[in-house]
Amino acid sequence: MRKSHPIRRVVLATAATVSGVVLLLSLKPSSDPASASAAGAAPSAAAAGQESPQGGTGAAGATTVDGDATQTQYGVVQVRLTVANGKITQAQAIQAPKGGTSDQKTALSVPQLNKETVAAQSANIDSVSGATYTSTGYKQSLQSALDKLKEASASGSSGSSSSSGSAQAQAKTVTGQVAQTQYGPVQVRITVSGGKITKAEAVQAPSGGTSDQKTALSVPKLNQEAVAAGNANIDSVSGATYTSTGYKQSLQSALDQAGG
Q1: pLDDT of amino acid 7
Q2: Strand partners, 190
Q3: Alpha-carbon distance 28 to 67, whole Å?
Q4: What are phi and psi of 171, to 5 degrees?
Q5: Are the C-beta atoms of residues 114 and 94 closer than 8 Å to each other?
Q6: With contact defined as beta carbons under 8 Å apart, do 187 and 249 qualify?
Q7: Is 211 within 8 Å of 184 (Cβ atoms)?
Q8: How far apart are CA 247 and CA 239, in angstroms?
Q9: CB-count burial class (<10 Å; 0-12, 13-18, 19+) for 40
Q10: 3-state SS of the chain?
Q11: Centroid of chain to Cα 44
């Protein structure tokens, strides 16, 4: 009986050790899943927090506006502006004189005019030396783009979105048929709103040689007369009879398409 006591002690010690190991193993899995789920929740919450601020506010606040195409002695100049938060963030010439020496002048002047526009935030910029006609046309188209922005801002702040949308729906842009003249084709585009011509421009006009000068002198005047008269009964420009005749023919076809 005395020899059995040590054996019992060994058995009891072994059983206690096994019970302790079992208890440790049973406790470990219950803590691991909780810690794993907590660790997994943090990155997903952070990702959600990163995505929500990027909801396109920058894109929604940016507006792109094209100025009127301005005819110069060496070609057409047209400026496009990108505006965000009330400031000009980008200016570019989507049309500019080209061909011959005009390519060099355009390459030198347009980038400088673009930078000056962004810096000045207005059309009060200096002309580039050696590119006076391009600079003048650039500033005219730039000013028209700025005017459009002001009109859009005024209409948006003075009324509700439905009223501004109805005003835009009333505006219609129509391009007349091409009128062939002795010195080249003439084509007129008009914008009509509220039954009146609000803008007129020649998207095609005679070019090359003396035609450039005649076009530069006659087309701006014809555009103004078309808006003032509200119809095609306008006077021909002296010295540009063929261009004037073609302009009025294309203008009348645009009016016909717009409903008179």
Answers
A1: 63
A2: 174, 200
A3: 72
A4: -75, 135
A5: no
A6: no
A7: yes
A8: 14
A9: exposed
A10: CCCHHHHHHHHHHHHHHHHHHHHHHHHHHHHHHHHHHHHHHHHHHHHHHHHHHHCCHHHHHEEEEECCCEEECCEEEEEEEEEECCEEEEEEEEECCCCCHHHHHHHHHHHHHHHHHHHHCCCCCCCCCCCHHHHHHHHHHHHHHHHHHHHHHHHHHHCCHHHHHHHHHHCEEEECCCEEECCEEEEEEEEEECCEEEEEEEEECCCCCHHHHHHHHHHHHHHHHHHHHCCCCCCCCCCCHHHHHHHHHHHHHHHHHHCC
A11: 35
CA distances from residue 236 to 63, 72, 88, 223, 239 in whole angstroms, order as listed? 38, 19, 39, 11, 9
Amino acid occupying residue 210: T
Per-residue pLDDT tens digits for 149-208: 888 777 665 444 444 444 444 678 888 899 999 999 999 999 988 888 999 999 999 998
Q: Does pLDDT of 25 surpass 70?
A: no
pTM of the shown model: 0.43
Residue 194 contacts residue 203 (beta carbons within 8 Å): no
